Amino acid sequence: MIEAKALTKRYGGKTAVDGIDFQVRPGSVTGFLGPNGAGKSTTMRMILGLDLPTAGTVTVDGRDYRGKVWPLHDVGALLDARAVHPGRSAYNHLHSLAAANGIGRARVDVVLEQVGLTSVAHKRVGGFSLGMAQRLGIAGVLLGNPGTMLFDEPVNGLDPDGILWIRTLMRSLAAEGRTVLVSSHLMSEMALTADHLLVIGRGRLLADTPLSELIARHSAERVEVRAADPRRLTADLRAVGARVAVESDGTLAVTGMGSVGIGELAAARGHVLHQLHDVTASLEQAYFRLTGESVEYRTPVSALEAGPTSKAVPKPEAVSA
Amino acid sequence: MSSSASLATLPPPARTVSRTRRARAVLAAEWIKLRSLRSLPVTLVVAAVFCVGLAALVCSDYAGHWKDVSAADRNTFDPLTVNFGFLRIGVLFFGVLGALVVTSEYGNGLIRTTFAATPQRGLVLAAKAALLGALALPASSVVCFAAFFVGQGLLSGHVPTVHIGDPGVLGHLLGAVAYLTATGLCGVFLGVLARGTAVAMTSVFALFLMLPVTVDELPHTALWRYTVPYLPSNLGETVWHSHTTGLLTAGPAWALLVLWPAGLGTLAALWLRHHDA
Question: Where do the DSSP E strands lie in chain A?
Fold first, then answer.
């Protein structure tokens, strides 16, 4: 369990983390989500006692990290996969970490095996790919078999295989009852990995919510219907209070009535339906809505819309009622 | 995933542990890091070759050209000073060596992993300094004694020489060893304060090479008297050199030579305690 109370970090005049309160509970993956520069890494460094809070406190299992005698038995963290000396072997890197916390050599072999680096254990880390370096970092997290684990942007720069591997690993670690906090700036990644979300922007906590709730809140915004006789269906739907917009290709965009209700109404009135499906707002959109104001260095909206993200935004000109 | 199974195989972490047990663990960790750093033995070998080589070069040059040396220069000729001139430059190797022990962790961010594993930062610093000392002491002994025997061997038969049994000679030899070791320790602590290899090297060069030359240009007023003799390079000069006017005597110089790394070490420990990693 990680607990932050009024946690604040200021660098000179700049506030990186602005009095946030949160709890990260065991048994689930908690996603720490926010744009770059939102304060995720600073918060993680404060959890690990690396940066000192300007105000407030943060504890792991009720204790200040700096007060822990053998911290790797309680907390494992992957902050930066490239934070290794390139001339050292993977084995020696882990061996020194293990020795610092009274962990035996046998455990080093176990975690190397676990992350699949046994065959390159005695190779210089400088020659590792980013994926291998991430695996080495994760071996360091597992070393003390801790109950709390922190991962800072673990999937950055990984290939799909590596992403899937880390995602599965984090979920299974949480399933074993551990506290897992993973930061990311990618909502899509969090949607697949996290059970609970802490959304942070400009150092402030914007949301502290189960993922399922976030999905529910933003799901089924409208139902798309294609029918043999769209005009008659539109009239019937409007008669029962639904709002219907007719798109150029004849598809009906229905709001204010669920797909179940539409299907039953259609059956009762003898409509032939070709298509009936829920259109959920993407979590990406939910995320943009939450963090939109808090992105520190933003691109003008026009530039954003020209980019690939605009595909997720519904075409406004199609809606009329 | 076999982590549940391995949960049982790890001994439960002891909440309370003796300070010596904790310190031993940190020392072991730092030793593993030190011996797996390739730049360290390379720097050591280069330093040894450079120092002994330079001593041999200077001594053989004196031996070969003694007949060209003026009578005045012959009168002031000191075989030990000539032999140990390499210390003025060779000391930089030891400062850099000490700095490397720390700065090899700063550039790549490894220092954060180190402090996450051992939040007792003072212990980490003490372990690094102890290991550097344990490495630099025998290394500088080998360098100084080898340079002495090679140098005096080359001088003998042509020019005046000293013997290790002569009064004061062993003291100066040990002074040279202490100077190099103390500089190595200063390098460790400058490495912490500089937080990077480039800045650390510059500080070592500035403190041991440029600053002494610069302030020596000052007129010999109070300003000179209260700065120049206290610079580590000049304290070193006092303890390895036979005689230098204007500098401290051997006793206080030895004490202050110990105080330099102690002072820098205190600063470094305070810095680590109060700053973000």
Answer: 2-11, 14-24, 29-33, 55-60, 75-78, 148-152, 179-184, 196-201, 204-210, 222-227, 243-246, 252-255, 273-279
CA distance A181 to chain B (A): 16
CB pairs under 8 A between A and B: 129
CB contact under 8 A, A85 and B2: no
Cα dihedral A167→A170→A174→A175 (10° resolution): 60
- Nearest residue to A284 via CA among A262, A307, A313: A313
User: Is B245 within 8 Å of chain A by CB?
Assistant: no
Q: Which amino acid is at A137?
A: G
Using a CB-CB distance cutoff of 8 angstroms, which residues of chain B are in contact with residue A96? 29-30, 32-33, 36
Question: pLDDT tens digit string along B78-99?
Answer: 899 899 999 989 999 999 999 9
ipTM of the complex: 0.87
Please state, in angstroms and rounded to a whole number, the distance separating the CA atoms of residues A149 and A145: 9
What whole-number percentage of chain B has pLDDT above 70?
93
The type of residue at A63 is R
**Between B3, B110, B116, which is nearest A85 by CB?**
B110
CA distances from B207 to A282, A298, B29, B92, B223 (A): 61, 46, 31, 10, 17
Q: How many CA atoms lie within 13 A of A147 on its CB side?
A: 14
Q: B residues 123-182 near A, CB within 8 Å?
A: none
Q: Is the CB of residue B272 less than 8 Å away from at least one CB of chain A?
A: no
Q: In what order do the strands lie in the sheet with A222-227?
A: A243-246, A252-255, A222-227, A273-279
- Sketch out chain A's domains with CATH numbers: 2-212 (3.40.50.300), 220-279 (3.30.70)
Q: Which of B35, B110, B271 to mutate to test the interface with A (most CBs of A within 10 A)?
A: B110
Per residue in B115-153, pLDDT tens? 999 999 999 999 999 999 999 999 999 999 999 999 999
Domain boundaries, chain B: 19-274
